[in-house]
Amino acid sequence: MKKSFTPWIGAGTTFVMAATLLAGCGSATNTTQETSKAGGAAATAAAKPFAGKTISLVTANHPWADAIKPLLPDFEKETGIKVNVESFFEDQLTQKLTVQFTSGSATPDVFMYRPLQEGKLFFKNGWVQPLDDYAKKDPNYDFKDFSPSAIGSTTVDAKLAGIPIITEQEILYYRKDLLEKAGIAVPKTLDELQAAVKKLHDPKNEMYGFVARGQRSPLVTQVSSFLYSEGADFTNGDKATINTPEAVKAFTTYGTLLKDYAPPGVLNMSWPQAFGIFAQGKVAFLTDANSLYNNAIDPAKSQVADKVGFAVFPGGKAGSKPYSITSWGLAMNAKSGNKDATWAFIQWATSKDVVLKTQQKGNPGARASVWDKPEGTTGFPAALVPIIKESAKTGVDHDRPTVISVGEARDAVGEIVQKLMTGETNIQPVADKANQALQSIMDKDKTK
Length: 448
Prior knowledge:
Blueprint: E1 2-5, E2 9-11, E3 14-16, E4 19-22, H1 32-47, E5 54-60, H2 63-68, H3 72-79, E6 82-88, H4 90-102, E7 110-113, H5 115-124, H6 132-137, H7 148-153, E8 155-156, E9 159-160, E10 163-175, H8 176-182, H9 190-200, E11 208-211, H10 219-229, E12 235-236, E13 239-240, H11 245-261, H12 271-279, E14 283-289, H13 294-297, E15 308-312, E16 324-332, H14 339-349, H15 352-359, H16 368-371, H17 385-394, H18 406-421, H19 428-445
Parallel strand pairs: 5-6, 5-7, 11-14
Antiparallel strand pairs: 1-4, 2-3, 7-16, 8-9, 10-14, 10-15, 10-16, 12-13
Helix pairs in contact: 10-11, 11-18, 18-19
């Protein structure tokens, strides 16, 4: 009697291995009992295709990790794979991964990472396993269901370096009550935003028109949507492009809004400070990540929780083009000794069923089908859901220069806005100098 097994496939959160017994030319004296035993053994093995395997998972201290951990027993039961988990704060996580990968460690097998912060470095160093063949070989996984911009964030040199687990977009937060009282429509363009900001700005009464990140490095991700919406970008191929007319216009818009209409101290604000003063009811408009919405609408944090509205990022010359990125992904260690088992975990953790469960806990995933289900949006304010879906359609897959030396690049870009905020009126020479700095960083990265 001949035994034949079809490969295991992922279908939602259930992994199935079908075992079939093909009739051979054996003697008729083979007993039904022997056949039953053989079939039973095959079924047991098939039920847990990786029985006895152990993989290591390293996560950030992040709500997604909190949501996935209680689901791990289901995965272990279905596959026979034991998952050992360690969690670290963000900076500790990056440091730990860098040390282990530099030493050639085969662990962790799978890990959370920030694609736009360390993705290119990890990939260029050969530390992550390209996942193209894994992701596209099983039709049940439905790889095309992932947002194109989210996949763009996790793609390096045309290779899939990771799978998205957390996405975010830049949106416009606004005070519904102030706009209604002043008879102002929700701005749909950057010109309309500037006009509304100017009209509502009343510093004598501690009401400011606009706030956003003003710190040199943190502001870069948020000014990116201004760039894209004006038809600009940080780079074009191998060339830095932050001194083009479109880029200079975008930087000028962002910098002027902060210089002329933001609260005092904005030069030193990152997102906690910007959201903090918005939540105090002292600002009319704020642009920042949709993932931070709770800081604006949680009554425990916000004095204007019931007065906050959400809108798609205002359009510029090129229309509305906010960043729409993967802020966290899952990647496989290129030196893992358990690659098939590791992929089994990644496939399960990013399957439609599991993304639904983690998204219901408020973790914005990258699968369009989950966003289209009413039960997939219960973890978010109803008014925010259409904004997220629309932003994902028109968004750009990065929110900073896609280089290896991200920190240096962000400092170079941020310098342009900060110079404008501190009174520089001729911004073109500043942009030219910053462009040269960014180009040098890009050229240096080629030698790494």
